[in-house]
Amino acid sequence: MDPLISVLSSLLVELAGVAFGAFTGEPTVPGPVVQAVVIDFSNQASNIAQRDVIYTIDPKVSSRMNTAYMVAGVSGQFAGTAVRNKLYALGGSAVACSTVSYVNG
């Protein structure tokens, strides 16, 4: 399967997980649990598809590409944490968690 299709489909599933968590209604345990499982599953599927592309590159370059990929991912998580803190201060935990789960994924 084309890695682009895998990544795009996993991002759509991730967005569905965010929507499910954001619109389940009253705060209950099943909503965030389902949201976390769906987002984590689709995030891992996206990572596998992206790393598949990295490992098909010349072996001399693949370790540097993998390092750049991981640094970019960690940088995105740091930025997402900063955004979550601002959103939590503005709108509370539901807004922050639903939004940043998608940003950090």
For the biggest sheet, the summary is: none
Mean pLDDT: 79
Strand content: under 5%
**Treating each run of at least 4 consecutive H or I residues as one helix, how many helices?**
4
> What is the approximate shape?
flat
Poorly predicted residue ranges? none
H/E series, N to C? HHHH
Oligomerization category of the chains in this entry: single chain
Structural class, from helix and strand content?
Answer: mainly alpha
Helix content: over 70%
Compute the number of strand runs. Answer: 0
Distance between the termini: 22 Å
- How many structural domains are formed by the residues? 1
Rg estimate, integer Å: 16 Å
Task: Tell me about this structure.
With about 100 residues, the chain is mostly helical. The chain is built from 4 helices and no strands. It has one domain (about 5-105). It is about 85% helix and about 0% strand. The chain starts with a helix and ends with a helix.
